[in-house]
Design a protein that fits this description.
mainly alpha, Four Helix Bundle (Hemerythrin (Met), subunit A), 2 domains, globular
Length: 165
């Protein structure tokens, strides 16, 4: 009989692998973005099974929410006519060969490497929060300002391009 944890792990890992395969194989890029969301939710499920609740929440909020929304927003701002000629798949066999080669090398590295056991003490959420708001507050604010400037720059570029038509 299979345990509940193992069954949930198989379900979550199937979501990750299935979503990842769909991201690279579907023709419609919007469907690929939603497949990425499925893969991110599966990753959050694996974090939950590993009792990493905070990482699961961050995975859902940042990657599952924000990144997928940014990708969809970017797709709405992109003129699809500019990319009609990019449907040539002449390099697909080479890409498959390169992917299989990289996968083989990675699998060999994973199997042949001894994993050390963790001897560090777990960090509490309170300590993590205090560290983020005391030690890392300014770098986070700088990063948020850089992202805000990039977003404003993207809007300005799109508006200038629309006025030029």
């Amino acid at each position: 009989m299979i345990s509940t944890d193992l069954l949930l792990f198989f379900i979550a890992s199937s979501l990750v692998v299935g979503g990842g395969v769909l991201v690279v194989t579907v023709k419609n890029i919007v469907y690929a973005a939603f497949a990425l969301l499925v893969a991110m939710l599966g990753t959050a499920g694996i974090f939950l099974l590993a009792f990493a609740d905070f990482l699961a929440l961050v995975q859902i909020l940042i990657y599952g929410g924000a990144v997928v929304v940014v990708i969809l927003f970017d797709l709405m701002l992109t003129r699809i006519e500019d990319f009609k000629g990019l449907t040539d798949n002449s390099q697909k066999p080479l890409a498959v060969l390169a992917s299989i080669t990289v996968l083989t090398i990675m699998m060999y590295a994973i199997v042949s490497t001894a994993m050390p056991s963790s001897k560090s003490d777990p960090v509490s959420m309170i300590d993590l929060g205090v560290s983020l708001f005391q030690d890392w507050a300014i770098p986070f604010e700088v990063a948020s300002l850089v992202l805000l400037v990039a977003l404003i720059g993207a809007v300005v570029l799109v508006r200038q391009d629309d006025e030029g038509r």
